[in-house]
Design a protein that fits this description.
mainly beta, 13-stranded mixed β-sheet, 1 helix, single chain
Length: 655
Amino acid sequence: MKKFYFLFLFALIASISNLYAAEKTVTFDATVDKSSGTTLTKDGITLSLEKGTSTTSGSGCGPLDNGTDYRPYKGNILTISSEYNITKIVFTCTANGTAKGGPGGFKTSSGYSYKDKTGTWEGTSKSIAFKAEVNQVRAKTIKVTYDAPEETKCATPTFNLENGKTYADAQTLEITSTTADATIHYTINGGAETTGQPAAFTENGVYTVDAWATKDNLTASDHTSIKFTIAKKMNKPTFNLTEGAVYGEAKVLEITSDKVGAQIEYTIVGGGNINITKTEASPVNVTLDQNGEYMVEASVLEMDDYAKSDAAGLNFKIELAAGVPTFSVEEGTYPEAQTIALAPGEGGEKVFYTINDGTEQQYIEPIKLEEEGIYKIAAYTAATETLAKSATVTKTYVINLPLEEPYILCEDAAWLTEGANIIFASSVAAGEQKAMSKLQKTNNRGAASVTIGSAFNVGKETVGIVSKDADVAVFIVGKSNGHITFYTGDSKDEENNEVAGYLYAAGSGSGKNYLRTTKIVDPNAEWSVSVAANGAATIKAQGANTNNLMRYNPNNGNPGNPMFSCYGSGQEPVYIYLLGKTSSVSSMSVEGVKVFAAEGGVEVVAEEAAEVAVYTAAGQLVRQARVAEGSTLVNVAPGFYVVRANGTATKVIVR
């Protein structure tokens, strides 16, 4: 007898144990299982997200509807809970380890580990909190395993439709129970019992469905019911035009139903005098060619057992515009001056234009582009009583006039006299090379093209710039505290604003290789210059900024984007080219007197005795002499001078 009771007790304990021993796993898939809030429940498992210590803007957390992953921000707390003991949680993430999005971003009290993109918690608890303490976590799936009681009763069914809702089209009711392999039973409006599902509802009416679930060896579920209405209604018509749009041309409005053969009732009011109310078969096409605002309202009429649709509305505007103006010359690069005539577009009478974003003006006479430069002309045809103004047409013209005389390679810093015009270039090699452009970028100077070729300097063949792009910058040499300054009056920034000023070395330290312009001369805008035998110039700013050597960078890490800037060392040398001949910028020939620059001074050839005065570019008298008939050399030091004789002046540079 004792043995019998022992066996009975053992069996009872085993049966109770089995009652609670069933394990279940619930999988949350971020692409499917979503919540517009911060809480999501599925099959008895709840995910709850709270802000914690997050500093993320807005609410600081959630919602759980990202569509790709569940995303606790750094500082957020994700709590996973159930009424039963959870034994295992597996996160599958988008990144590895502690990287942003990886499972290593989580910390919890105990039982958690991670490897690569997978984080795993194991233990026994009804609620586990995971804090994204290390980094943001992005989990594509979360699998939760828990100890669930063995089922003795079928789970109550649920419905895919909403209780109390009215549907405007046929519906399919799906009835499901979480009890595996359960049979679904239901009645419709108290009628005969039906098993299986889904159930289709194609007729208009009010429906009450009562449902329950059964399974062998389990008690039947509780009954549950849903009530809904099918009131089929035609879908709203659609329009081919866009709500709130403004159209610059006549439009054909198309109104369409998704039911073939449906009748559309519509009203169109707008334009100058349009007021249409009609009923036509879908699709409806109406041409609208008057300026003004339009309001459209349309419905699809009842068809078969579908009621008339709700009204669809549309508002838009038509602004018929004049044609765009025409230009007599196509945009492009030209080696000579151009004259541009503008003509109004179709329906227009007047044209307005700007040049290089300047003051807008009415077109009266042809536009003459006579000086070297880049010209952006933007023009439109003005509005009339019946037409809006046209779209703006912009054309760009580059005028590259031939050089009257070449820029000669500077072979001696003494040639850089006050008032001289110079170009900074990248090379002495023949052919197309780069020179400093008029473009002042944020921290450096842009580059444009020049052509290097042969030039003659007082009978001596040398290297010179024989042609240049219009956007090559020409600098004026000045003097300050015994050093040289370089002034530009026509430079522009990347937004086309004027940035006239003196070049200066603007940076110190790693990566701050800056060359900019400044309005005021300071030591960083004062330069020392020396020239090597090969023509390469060492140009060094005198101020405290340590990146002070002007150099050429052929690509700045980006081929096709060369620049000129200042560096502490490295990059490529700069070459200076000077306008005119270095030993004879010009000569003068007036009645009875000829003046030439010569080695060591100024040569004066006079038919009879004459007064000659030699001045610096600043106006200081250097030498004054009365020369005799014949040739006389007036000795002066190398430099830039103005020579006056018989009331006429000329500029010369003496080596």
